[in-house]
Amino acid sequence: MNNLLALDPGSDKVGTAVLSYTKEEKEKTIVKKEELLDHLAEIFNNYQIKEIIIGDGTGADSVKEMVSSRYSDLKITMVAEEYTTEEAQARYLKEKPMSNYEKLLRKVVSWKLKKPLDDYAALIIGEKYLDKLDKID
């Protein structure tokens, strides 16, 4: 079965997500930028990837250059990634609710979640791309 690979590039790290064309999440993780190509080799060994979707934010150009040099035979699409960080945080909190202490901190001192969510953002980037494909069909 064909899948797509979505990437959320940042300055130092990259969120990766593999999902099917029916939006089934296969895997997601965060890797250091210098480890990206090794990680992608593992993904390509485990999944049939048809195309790569890259969020157009910070670090996107360098990641696109890295990926396209290794996987030039695949379609690589840049997509807008506005609001993916907020959506990633909302999804994370839905899947892993905060403790009462964390909720109190959030109210009292405008505490924000400090966990990196690039993997969730990559998943959302992939889902948004698939949503656009559905509208075209």
TrEMBL record:
Keywords: Cytoplasm, Hydrolase, Nuclease, Ribosome biogenesis
All residue ranges annotated as the YqgF/RNase H-like domain in the record: 2-88
Record has Nuclease as a keyword: yes
InterPro entries: RNaseH-like_sf (IPR012337), YqgF (IPR005227), YqgF/RNaseH-like_dom (IPR006641), YqgF/RNaseH-like_dom_sf (IPR037027)
GO molecular function term, any single one: nuclease activity
Matching Pfam families: RuvX
Source organism superkingdom: Bacteria
KW Transport (keyword) present: no
GO biological process, one term: rRNA processing
Protein name listed in UniProt: RNase H-fold protein (Predicted Holliday junction resolvase)
Source organism of this protein record: Halanaerobium saccharolyticum
